[in-house]
Specification:
3 helices
Length: about 90
Amino acid sequence: MMQGVGGLFAGDEVVKGAMAGYVFEHFEIASYTALIIAAEEAGEADVARICRENLAEEEAMAEWLREHLPKVTKQFLQREEAGAPAKR
């Protein structure tokens, strides 16, 4: 909680937002993984299939975010160094 409060006054919201998105995607990946197992154990093949489709989408988004995090970070640092606002 204190880390969150401390972050309210920092200028790196863009980078933190990108990182938070990456973390959230992994939370969703873990959730769908657990749901797939639960659905299979309950004999709910259709639910498991849908969860697998969603899982693939979340994995793709996590990969996209991982690939773009370096660029976002570099752009933030360049804008900050130039004195430009980071929020856009």
